[in-house]
Amino acid sequence: MSSPSLATILDPATIRAQTAKVYARAKAGGTAFALDESALPACIDFVMQVTNRNYPDGKIPFHGRAEHLRAGGVDRMALKVSEPLERARALVDLVMVSVLLDAGAGNDWKYVENGVTYTRSEGLAVASAAMFHAGAFGAGRVDAAGLERVTVAQLEKAFQVSASNPLLAVEGRVALLNRLAVSLRAYPELFPGARPGGMVDVLLARGKVTATALLQHLLIGLSRMWPARATIEGVGFGDVWQVEGELVPFHKLSQWLTYSLIEPVESAGVKVEGVDQLTGLPEYRNGGLFLDFGVLTLRDASLARLELEASHPAIIEWRALTVQLLDRVGAEVQRRLGKTSAELPLARVLQGGTWSAGREIAKQKRAGGVPPLTLKSDGMVF
């Protein structure tokens, strides 16, 4: 698989197949992490406790941006757009820029809205929504022209950044938005009008779409935006890495964007099917859950004291193991709740779920709820 085809790298099944190889090496003692599957039941019990507390009625939404955009009981997705199709386009616009601005904020940043303080993902969502509603990315929309104009100074002001309120990877976030404009212009057949919301018209013409097809639309359509860590048949990918001489795709941010866009896209009358084909998200809350419960343990404890790049072999292995472990947690949560994978896909298990449980156990174990590993955020992976 050193030179996979484009179709292979775009397929979520490839994520599972390649991460399964890392999992097999971990079981054989060949990774930076020791794997203790006997610790998994206690971890799942905790996920179930958190899920039942958060959603006692069993109605678990997708793990998308919508929940963050509704932080504090304020629905920032309630747009003042009366025409249904244009409203769906605008929702896609809002969600896309909000997701892309959601890389780790750091432990010291906060955002204050109407006297209420928000941090981390919720704070980033609230701040990005405020930028959108202020027309920072275009008048009532997001388009390439508006994205090209976004500057570091503008983002710092909008996100209330200061010496005493630092935000990680500001330059990386702005660069990502600027390069989004490049992708929108490069693929007019996928994003008519050079705006994210233009994809609604393309999908509406199909009537229904699989989650995998939606993911692939984004992977191709946004490929000019990412640093091309791997290029296959002329298409660059930003979250594909090398392990033992083979490529391991994660497509984490693109998958989370897919989860997040389901609600806006379906509001236009497009049915999204097969959500259970996508994988869990290998980021620090889900991955941290398994470290904090001892399912995974670093063989070299000194790595926990270092700031690690996303390209570090241990981080790539950690993320691969997280994908595999999330599948195992998901299957058991589905069994305990009497649901099929179609009824309770990982997109809901994470929300219920593993992401919240990872955040909660981190708060119990470390001041400020910081993750068990220190990651260097460039605004594009975590």
Q: Which value, in Å, is the CA radius of gyration?
A: 20 Å
Kindly give the count of domains. 2
Provide the structure class.
mainly alpha
Q: Helical proportion? A: 40-55%
Characterization of the model:
The protein is mostly helical. The protein has two domains: 1-63 and 232-258 and 274-382, no CATH class; 64-205, no CATH class. Helix content is 48%, strand content 10%. The protein has 15 helices and twelve strands. It has helices spanning 6-9, 12-27, 40-54, 66-69, 84-100, 120-133, 144-148, 152-158, 170-186, 199-204, 211-221, 252-266, 284-292, 313-337, 346-365; strands spanning 33-35, 110-113, 116-119, 208-210, 230-232, 235-237, 240-243, 246-249, 271-273, 296-298, 307-308, 374-375. The protein has a two-stranded antiparallel sheet with strand order 1-10. The protein has a two-stranded antiparallel ribbon with strand order 2-3. Strands 4-9 form a two-stranded parallel sheet. A hairpin with a 2-residue loop joins β2 (110-113) and β3. α11 packs across α12 (252-266) and α14 packs across α15 (346-365). The longest helix is centred in the C-terminal third of the chain and has 25 residues, at 313-337.
